[in-house]
């Protein structure tokens, strides 16, 4: 009897789910394919690179289309015009992130920059933006240039020994050092044998672990019925995030004992002066910066290396331009040289187009129902912006699968290239990231010729968790 009741209930659930997922909200819904009961269109994203799966759907349904991810109604946007209309012209309606049980569990709230909503987000953004004004960014320039020279000296140890090197760990530490210094005046040693601070070793481990599990958790969140399982799982992996937050709280109290209101040393000082005794918010914001700031920049630099090894003619043109710009008397490229090295700048832009670190920008949610570009978007809709597709669409780019920096020389393609998103909730550290990328990449080109260890091209396959990165590779840094 109970089996029969359960069977009828399950059949009813299947039928109800199928009907509800495939009925129209309006006569002007975005196009999309039929959805399966319960799971929706989740099988269409079963590959290892969901942004490419979504790009394949785009070929059939257009640059704005609908699907169901489990029980979550979702619209995918690969149209830069629609993207700007949403994120700039209608920012208020699309400013928030969707509800995330993992974010809420790890942060104990939505009290940090990535997941905060409404007035909380405005407060967080204002607080953090104060640390990234043009005046403050000028003080970061010397830090970036100094850390870049430390990076070059580490790489020269390998070039002088003619050793092959997998640069992933070194580049990650370089990016992490810049954001660590800016946030809390700390630094990690490049050589593990020299690292005497166990907190710094643990931090690297926690960052790696958090990114490792994020993709798995994000996928499960499409099924609210699985929330108990997610919470159970988070009890085990949340310890990394909690320890990370506790470490930032430890540094908060260290800062508090030597805080000078007239001379803030770093972002933590600046936030403390604004937030008073709010240790939780300061610690969570610090974790946000350390997670996002280190991973995105380091992955882009690694992609830059892959691109130069696989395109030696690009490398040759870049070194000629740099030497012409700085002359023979200098052995360092400064940020002030950027204006005189347009090809070098174009290489970095092409790297970000070809290999976007955030191929699917963090999702948004519609606060109210709205009609945009003749499409009806219901309240509570999850929105994904397919940055990867925008950078690989033949409508916007000639030969998009060919690495060609010259496409950015006379045309910035600003309307199509959105590696940092757009609108008021774009990447708050964009200018800092661009300064770091230019200084690091230009000085690598100045000092080394990058060569494959076996004479073959490096793999350009993308690995994806919440960001993209290249497969591990070994290269030779040959002194110039």
UniProtKB/TrEMBL annotation:
Membrane-spanning intervals of the chain: none
Compartments reported by the entry: Membrane
PROSITE patterns: CYTOCHROME_P450 (PS00086)
Pfam families per record: p450
Swiss-Prot/TrEMBL keywords: Heme, Iron, Membrane, Metal-binding, Monooxygenase, Oxidoreductase, Transmembrane, Transmembrane helix
One term of GO molecular function: iron ion binding
GO cellular component: membrane
Highest taxon of the lineage: Eukaryota
Membrane association type: Single-pass membrane protein
Chain positions recorded as heme binding sites: 427
Keyword Transmembrane helix: yes
Known cofactor(s): heme
UniProt similarity note: Belongs to the cytochrome P450 family.
Name used for this protein in its record: Cytochrome P450 family protein
Organism for this UniProt entry: Heterostelium pallidum (strain ATCC 26659 / Pp 5 / PN500) (Cellular slime mold)
Lineage: Eukaryota, Amoebozoa, Evosea, Eumycetozoa, Dictyostelia
């Amino acid at each position: 009897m109970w089996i029969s009741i359960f069977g009828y209930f399950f059949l009813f659930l299947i039928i109800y789910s199928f009907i509800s997922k495939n009925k129209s909200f309006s006569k002007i819904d975005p196009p999309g394919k039929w959805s399966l009961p319960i799971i929706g269109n989740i099988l269409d994203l079963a590959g290892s690179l969901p942004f490419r799966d979504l790009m394949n759907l785009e070929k059939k349904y257009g640059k704005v289309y609908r699907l169901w991810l489990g029980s979550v109604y979702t619209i995918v946007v690969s149209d830069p015009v629609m993207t700007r209309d949403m994120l700039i012209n209608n920012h208020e309606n699309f400013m928030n992130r969707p509800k995330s049980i993992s974010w809420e569990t790890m942060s104990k709230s939505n009290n940090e920059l990535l997941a905060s909503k409404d007035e909380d987000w405005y407060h967080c953004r204002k607080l953090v933006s104060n640390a990234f004004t043009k005046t403050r960014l000028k003080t970061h320039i010397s830090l970036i240039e100094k850390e870049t020279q430390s990076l070059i000296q580490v790489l020269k140890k390998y070039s002088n020994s003619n050793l092959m090197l997998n640069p992933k760990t070194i580049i990650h530490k370089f990016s992490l050092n810049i954001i660590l210094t800016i946030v809390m005046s700390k630094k990690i040693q490049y050589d593990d044998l020299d690292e005497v601070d166990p907190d710094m070793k643990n931090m690297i481990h926690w960052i790696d672990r958090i990114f490792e599990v994020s993709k798995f958790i994000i996928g499960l969140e499409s099924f609210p019925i699985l929330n108990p399982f997610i919470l159970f799982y988070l009890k085990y992996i949340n310890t990394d995030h909690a320890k990370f937050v506790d470490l930032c709280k430890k540094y908060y109290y260290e800062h508090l004992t030597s805080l000078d209101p007239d001379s803030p040393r770093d972002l933590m000082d600046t936030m403390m002066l604004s937030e008073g005794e709010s240790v939780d918010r300061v610690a969570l914001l610090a974790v946000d910066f350390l997670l996002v700031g280190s991973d995105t920049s380091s992955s882009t630099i690694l992609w830059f290396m892959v691109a130069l090894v696989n395109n030696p003619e690009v490398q040759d043109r870049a070194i000629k331009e740099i030497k012409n710009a700085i002359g023979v008397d200098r052995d360092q490229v400064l940020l002030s040289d950027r204006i005189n090295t347009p090809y070098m700048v174009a290489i970095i832009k092409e790297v970000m187009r070809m290999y976007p670190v955030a191929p699917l920008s963090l999702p948004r949610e519609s606060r109210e129902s709205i009609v945009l570009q003749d499409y009806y978007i219901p309240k509570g809709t999850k929105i994904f912006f397919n940055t990867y597709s925008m950078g690989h669409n033949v409508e916007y780019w000639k030969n998009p699968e060919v690495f060609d920096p010259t496409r950015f020389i006379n045309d910035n393609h600003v309307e199509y290239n959105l590696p940092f998103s757009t609108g008021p909730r774009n990447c708050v550290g964009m200018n800092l990231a661009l300064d770091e990328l230019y200084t690091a990449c230009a000085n690598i080109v100045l000092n080394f010729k990058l060569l494959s260890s076996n004479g073959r091209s490096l793999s350009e396959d993308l690995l994806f968790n919440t960001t993209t990165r290249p497969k591990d590779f070994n290269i030779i840094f040959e002194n110039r």
